[in-house]
Amino acid sequence: MNNRPQSSLAGKIPGRFAWEEKFEINRREGVHLPAMEGLRGFSILVVFLAHYVIHSIPLLPEDSFTLSFAKAFFNNAHTAVDLFFLLSGFFIYGALISRPRSPWKFYARRAERIYPPFLTMFLIYLVLSWIFPAESKLPTDSMKALGYLLANLLFLPGLFPIQPLISVTWTMSYEVFFYLSIPLLILALRLYSWREKSRCIFHLALTTLTAIVFYHWGGHVRLIMFISGMLLHDFLRVRTGFNILPGVGLVTLAIAFSLMLFIPFGATGLVMRAVALFCLLPFTALDCVQNPHGATARFFSWTPLRWLGNMSYSYYLMHGLVIKGLFYVYPLIFTPQNLSVETFWIGILPAFLATLAASLPLYLFIEHPFSLMPKRLRVHSDQPVHG
Questions:
Q1: How many whole angstroms separate alpha carbon 223 and alpha carbon 174?
Q2: Which of 270, 348, 289, 324 is nearest to 45 (CA)?
């Protein structure tokens, strides 16, 4: 694998806030994949835009190009979540397959990684539910409310038809299912002892079976994106002589997003979307890994994009609340159905900056010290936690 060595963290000015140390979290033996961090940053930007757009749609002028664009963009933006799933499959599976470990130690580390920021936001949402009862999702019956809170703490909304307390966390149920199942699968089949080519064939067979089952009986077909990341990991270790041309990853990423505009939703459409993304999105990641100096890797290695990717879990948990708050006060400024096209476009940057400002404290004071660096300075190759 073509990894690029990175500069050390030495040379910081004493007394100054160590920004690089706070955001450069994926160093492993002096080597990591910076463009993959940028891919996460790109994905979370698309997720932000999707939520900004969905809140804007009811307020935009009818028959405007901007309204049509907003609707099309929102229908397409789920592609960013699938990219997150691919990255999780790549990193988590890669860490487990190369270093077999006890599932219980892995589960403990995943809980340590996920819960501090989540529980912080969970408490914030509970307080807001008490302050704004009209916005509360809690059932009025105390036992039902307790069951609802427990379901959210176990990340059941998403895979199960339960409305999440924190609206964006439906994707975490996919992630948690993957975290729970993949160590057991690796140990049960002793996948770490298989040759890489055999594992690649297994991943393709598992994907085919999953897609067929979900097509005929329904289900969460997007789970195959985790397998796509697993396949990418093993493919990179097979000496095939296949090298992707630099820049192809940007093209396949554009095709993936564009293609989603033409594939309908519904049982058949969802399977078609998942299979198309399963085939297209790995080329973007492959380009980043094989061509660290190519156009794709250079684009996604931009430092602000990488840093956003590295704090993407905190941003992911916080941004939806901030956007909802912004649009909660918009009716005080704009009458309903009267958000001008100009205001929509001009408001994107301030809205993003507001979400970023709100997410930074969660990252700096909760996620970084309690999830990323507990007890001692630790470095993780399995850092991605969501979509």
A1: 7
A2: 348
